[in-house]
What we know:
Strand order of the largest sheet of chain A: 3-4-5-6
CATH class of chain A: Alpha Beta
Radius of gyration of chain A: 14 Å
Number of domains of chain A: 1
CATH superfamily of chain A: Folate-binding superfamily
Radius of gyration of chain B: 38 Å
CATH topology of chain A: Folate-binding fold
Number of strands of chain B: 50
Oligomer: heterodimer
Order of helices and strands of chain A: EEEHEEE
Structural class of chain B: alpha+beta
Shape of chain B: elongated
CATH superfamily of the domain at 163-290 and 422-495 in chain B: FAD/NAD(P)-binding domain
CATH topology of the domain at 163-290 and 422-495 in chain B: FAD/NAD(P)-binding domain
Helix content of chain A: under 10%
Distance between the termini of chain B: 91 Å
Number of helices of chain B: 23
Number of strands of chain A: 6
Amino acid sequence: MLHIKCPHCGLRSQNEFSYGGDATVKRPELNKEISDQDWDSFVYLRKSPRGKHLELWQHISGCRRWIKVERDTLTHEIFKTLKANEEV
Amino acid sequence: MSEKFRLDKGGLINRNKKLSFKFNGKKYFGYEGDTLASALIANGVHLVGRSFKYHRPRGFFGAGVDEPYAIVQMNRNNEVDPNVRATEQELFEGLEAKSVNCWPNVDFDIGAINNFLGKFFPAGFYYKTFMWPKSFWYKVYEPIIRKAAGFGEASIKHDKEKYEHKYEYCDLLITGSGPSGLASAYAAAQNGAKVILAEDKSRFGGSLLTSEVTIGNQSGKDWAEKIISELKLMPNVIVKNRSQVFGYYDHNMLVMSERVSDHLPKTEKYIPKQRLWYIRAKEVIISSGSIERPLVFGNNDTPGVMLSSAAKEYLKIYGVLVGKKPLVFTNNDSGYETAIEFKKNGIDPIVLDTRKSPNSEIIKEAKDLNINIKFSYVVVAAKGYKKVKSADIAKISDDKKNVSNIENIGCDCICVSGFWTPTIHLASQSGNKTKFKDEIDAFIPSQSKQKETTLGSANGIFTLEETLKTSFEKGSELSKQITNKENKIAVPSVVEKKSSNHDKFWCVPLPEGKNYKRFLDFQNDVAVSDIQLALREGYRSIEHVKRYTTLGMATDQGRTSNLNGLQLVSDIENKVVPQVGHTTFRPPYSPVSIGAIVGREIGKHSKPTRKSPMHYWHEKNNAVFVDAGVWLRPRYYKQGNENLFEASKREAKNVRQNVGVCDVTTLGKIDIKGPDSAEFLNRVYTNAWLKLPVGKARYGVMLREDGIVMDDGTTTRISENHYHMTTTTAQAANVLSHLEYYLQLVWPELNVNVVSSTEQWAGAAIAGPKSRDVLQKLFPDLDLSNEGLPFMGYMEGNLFGVNAKIYRISFSGELAYEVNVESDNGNYMWEKIMEIGKDFNIQPYGTEALSTLRIEMGHVAGSELDGRTIPYDNSLDGLVSKKKDFIGKRSLSKAAYVASDRQKIVGVIPLDKKTSIPEGSYIVKDAKAKLPNPKLGHISASCWSVEYDNPFSLAIIKDGRNMIGQKLFAMSPLKNKTIPVEIVSSHYVDPKGERVRS
């Protein structure tokens, strides 16, 4: 079980969090023209990197905030955790 | 039967307390402090099981967790416990156990014929033989193999034992209470660190209990006792025996199983059988020691062949002789310790040492005791079937390739010592890259990945002096980093015997013309010949060899077999062991019962059960409940002998004719506040929200980004910047997370807050043509006319002293209202509604009637919004705004979503107007078409229409909009039914929606 440092609450066990996927994906802006291909890759295409991965987690059983976690998908090492509005 | 093999004195058992027990139905005696294994050996019982594949007789090989054979089936506290290691099971009065993997009994096992057919059971036998014909596998082959193979039998009854979980945090977790564990725990505790010291066995001390050493001015055993009693008194130390740390997981989380009650005849009230500890440690010290390695020779699995360290343990801890004519077969000095122990107790052992002329203190001591030692000698093969009767021994050539001078000598046990294998499982699980240490022919931990340190013999250090020194140092150093305190302790002086080098020899060559089975893996019956065959067949990677031959698998995880297996592969491949590498060690180190893993989360405790404030009223009024997500909801209220069908029909009919009331507390509710709430809702829902006036509700559909409907519900504008959203019962949590996602990550500029208010409100839906009459009596001061409170209107009122919110919304399709009050007032509200509604023939209705009402109205619910449908499919496309953008909108223009024959919801009626259509049935054009019959869609929900008194179903079918009026078939292969049906509109009752607006 991972130990994740919520930037709002501190170090907590993984079972307080839920996983939310790739944090680098940016939702296309509303009301803007977008090609089928760009839209499809936003909806469906995700990289599955071996190694460093910036991902989203939600502290559902804690502060309910969405946070960013930089984690090694191979070793589970967590390099840093960030608030939703922070960049690496 | 008397204890012929028990010494008159000695051992750590309590000779004042005699215990009786039964093994395979026969009664024996032992003492408090015995294990089942030591008590059986004391009684001369060595035959305890049959081997996995060949059903060869098996006895005891070890004295603890290393035991590969002696697995028994226990009957304790009226519960069956399969696969218990007899060497770990402590004896208690009345213990009952039996052998496994033998039929009809352990003495005469029919499966043993496999032994004589052995040449037909080579490595990979099952893979090779039972491939053809394919259909035979699960009907014929598998049941037979299952009966013949495997170990204990699991009970099929519910396990009534109690198990629990515990979470703990500590500075240092120390696994094993041998010299390194004790020294490091003591040093860390002195520095004020929070320490957990875990010992797998019942007694603390590890090797100190059986070795002849002096620490300070005490024997090793007394020193261990002193340290443990001091540690137990310290408030910063948790000392646990019978506790196996079996798994090292990520971020220094380890899991330990504590056998709380297994050593007792009964589990006491309020005490669990076993407890699983989840321990998050800042630092971990692995002091798990080492396990003696077997030597490989012919028939080395015969009962009576065992590890020399085990023989010593039976002598010194239990006062039990494993034999009276022992043969000690060793390639190092450890065997001599066992021989000397025999000699001291009046038994004459013979020592066969594979080395030519070793010299050390302990060998000299053995010589001085006149022990018969034969150098450059080996055991070629054990003789005897159910117990060792003699051994063929021989001289071994200097190059260790040939044996000569074979002679047969009588013996009743063969104690083998092939040097020591560090127990590196936990270190390896943590991600440690282990390295091969030539001097000890074994792997030891090297580079740590997590915060873990291995000490003592687990780290390949076999002298006590160095072990104690490094362990005191490490314990102090690691704890100092955490506590910033240092209490220096002097390392005590040590007296121990110096050892000479061991011999790398490990496998006795076969004499010419002999074809003895030489076992590597005792638990899985993997012999030298199996590995040779696997390599001949082209398996190279050790991971493949493992899976093909089963070497190192099953409950003992290769504790005794791994290294010898690697040696053999390296020898054949002409490689060195480190090149071959070892297989991955995975948790658990030793078996953990499923009960312990599950803990308290069984039955109703496996998830929370939520009950509405009106639950007890429903209970008192004969409600039959159904699980709805985590909620319990009334399915129907039983009157007299009614069944589900009759009751739900009565309830639904009463809603259509009079008035009914339904508990809708379980609906998800989300409170939304902030100046940008309207803009936010406008982006979340498919329809327009900017112009919803205060005091009005609106139905909305929300999508995922892929265009699939996520949820639906009504949202009401309570005041300028305050909205009350409802979701379906099942999606409540997901919708909240969804909203939080967009507010926090995508549109943080929106000034909106959301919070769940599901549990804050109790809700009652009052539905039916007389619902307004009931409501008017509940709120006599309010204008509830169609103009005063129109459809989709909202009002606040006072319900006999409590604040209430009234929403004119309808799921049933009738004139209906939902009244919400604070949860604490829920029951009060409900009783008032029932009391006042009496004059209007009000009846409560459950989820079954609710379903009936919504299905015949064509209102979609979870079975249509099933994660595969878009708004169009559910005839909700009218709610999709063309003017504004919203979550998922761009996906709706995908080619598949706008296809002209896109699936759509329809109504389905059986032509005979009698036969109910099973939910999940397929809709097909031609019932007799060749399989696979093209499927047009499926039945999503079925009911008995109370309006028309015939069955009615909803279906989502291809080209639904052009199918109305067609005659098709509903087929349910599950129920073996084919029903001719007609496709109609999904709005079966009141298609214009006049009732809700009346």
